[in-house]
Structures are given as structure tokens and as C-alpha cells.
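Sample log: FMN hydroxy acid dehydrogenase domain-containing protein.
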Amino acid sequence: MANEIPITVEHVEAIARQRLPKNVLDYYASGADDQTAVKRNRTDFDRLYILPRVLRDVAKVDTSTRLLGHTYPLPIGIAPTAMQKLVSGGAAGYEALVLTVDTPVLGNRLNERLNPLVLPKGLKLANIASLYGQKEGNPTSNRTLMNARSAKEATEILRAMGDQAHSASLTWGETIKFLRQNTSLKIILKGILAPEDADLAIEHGADALIVSNHGGRQLDSAPSTIQALPEIVAIVRRRIPVIFDGGIRRGSDVFKALALGADFVLVGRPTLWGLAFDGRNGVETVINILERELSRTMALSGVVNIQNINQAFLRHLEGGRLSKI
């Protein structure tokens, strides 16, 4: 399989799974607790059906779109993911500040606890190492906290961690205000699931939000992101871009997220599988696969541009019958 040219994202993942050490694979692939949120992020896409329109001129399909003042050839970007050097030696630049808002503490990631991730020789978390002198190869204190067996032990770990701990005290009233005072970059909030929080994001001046459940790695009982998306789109009312993250593995998944109102989608784990497969070329392979699948899905659905993808193309099963969303 390793010598085959992958033709689906799942094929790329299968190759990556063969190559990665178990503790690295568990770190990237696993979710919290019973991993039901990870599964729902995928299976809930299968509950949506695309209703194609026919006899439309789809000879020229345009997959380009605009987001935050930029034009992109695809409505697909790469999600923020941690410790990419575990699968590749490359680096990337940035044009926006993405604040992950759903991680006051780490979720209960059982596979990570059973197979702890210790960074290999030569790798370290640069931001923590520069501030707190993290020793090479040691797990972060936040991951030590995840293994606490009692409230007393957790309190002792937190006391020893000091400022290294994930902040559990961020608030709407102070956080975005502080960031705005200290950066000229666009501020994007990642980890929004409640429509009320989407409204607060706009009220406090966020430039965009990302509908995300952290890939199922935080609260296992949280809804899938495709479940949460419609309510958030309804309350945002196009005042800021709504970006979607979670479970995208096919071009048809991209189509469905856009049809439910997302302005843009992100892929996280698939890009990591691409890095493990063939570095930068592997990531390009993943994006090219999604582009071909999205373009084909659009043509087969009777749509020639991203702006015309809407809920009219979607149906879901209700009582054994297809119903409008």
C-alpha cells in the first residue's frame, strides 16, 4: 500500500497509519473518552443527502471563494494543528491569530494516557521551552494534569505548573480586548459550538469564528460540528465569516458544509496524514483530492460556483423519507 498513489483522503490516512509510531498516531487520531464525538463528526455527514439538479450547463465549474479580503482557489484551508514536526520537518507562516477557546483544560484523551506522547530527541515546544525552560523530551505539564487521579493530585500539579497551565480564566470581557490591543492581525475564535457564543463573538469584535469541537478531543458529549453549524449560521446572519472544522474527508463533505451556510472549511487530521505520507507533496495530494471531489460533486449537483451552493441541494432522512433541511 505504501507504494500506491492514493486517490482518496482515507487512502492517505491508511498509509500514514502504517508509518507513524503508535504514540504519535494516538496523539493525532484519538478523541476524548469513548471517542463518540470523533465518530459523530464523520457519521453525521452521512445523514445528509445531496439532491442533484440536472440539465444545467456545468462545463465550467469555479471553486474559488473570498474570505477576509482574500481570494482562494478553494473554500478549503488547513486547520491549526499542534506539533506538526512529529510527521514533518517543515514550517508555515500566518496572517491571522486563531484563538482556541474550547481548551480551558485538556479533554480526557484515554489513548494518549495509555500511550503517552514524549517528544523525540531534537523536538520541543518552542514557546514553552523559551518561557519556562522545558526539558527536551518531557511531556508538557498540561498533559501531566490530564493523568491526575484525584482532586488533590490535580491541585498539586496545577500549583507546580504556575503560568504553564492552560488558562481556565479567559473571559469574553477581557480576552479579545487584550488581543486587539496587542495585534493587528485578524482575530479568529476556534471552538464555537453554541449559537449564543457565536453572537458573543460578534459582540466582542471577532473577525471570524470556527465551528469546531476540537476534532472530538475535548468534550466527548458535544455535538458534531455539522450538527451545530445550522444554528450558528442562523444567528450570525453573515455578519462575520463562519468557518467549519471537523470530519471533512470528502469533497462532498465540503459541499454539505457550504450548503448549510459555512463560508469556508478547514481540514486538520488529513493534512497531518499528508505530511506523514510525503511531506509538503503529501499535503498537496490531500488538497488536490478534495478539489477534484468538490469540483465533481458540484458538476453532478448542477452548481457552477461556490456562491450558489445552498440548503436547497440538501435533504435528510426523517421517518424513512427524504425531507428538506
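Observation: The chain has a mean pLDDT of 89.
Observation: The first strand starts at residue 48 and ends at 50.
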